[in-house]
Specification:
Strand content: over 45%
Distance between the termini: 40 Å
Largest sheet: 7 strands, mixed
Radius of gyration: 13 Å
Structural class: mainly beta
Shape: globular
Order of helices and strands: EEEEEEEEEEE
């Protein structure tokens, strides 16, 4: 089992910045990749970005490219999401997730094995 705990959410004005963190514990040695998803009220959970845990590659949704940056600290087992130039449409509950499989799609929530409880991000206009 892997436990994931997000932090750093809050209220931010449009154009501002916010940094989310995700602390991983448990059997993290089996992790191949981690990702961030977000879910707005009444909508599906959407892929934001992901990173291979070794750090060799990162992937982003088109909607956040150039504004969001994913990073990880292997020594601390933490995943981060630096959000810049945020927009009201970035509002939602942000979840971090991890998976063991190397071949699964980055974009589908079903391909991830473990999830955090989520942290709310609200961007005011």
């Amino acid at each position: 089992q892997v436990q994931l705990v997000e932090s750093g959410g809050g209220l931010v004005q449009a154009g501002g910045s916010l940094r989310l963190s995700c602390a991983a514990s448990g059997r993290t040695f089996s992790t191949y990749a981690m990702g961030w998803f977000r879910q707005a009220p009444g909508k599906e959970r959407d892929f934001v970005g992901g990173i291979v845990w070794s750090g060799v590659a990162t992937y982003y949704a088109d909607s956040v490219k150039g504004r969001f940056t994913i990073s990880r600290d292997k020594s601390k087992n933490t995943l981060s999401l630096q959000m810049k130039s945020v927009k009201p449409e970035d509002t939602g509950v942000y979840y971090c997730a991890s998976r063991r499989d190397r071949l699964s799609s980055w974009y589908h929530p079903d391909t991830y094995d473990y999830w955090g409880q989520g942290t709310q991000v609200t961007v005011s206009s």
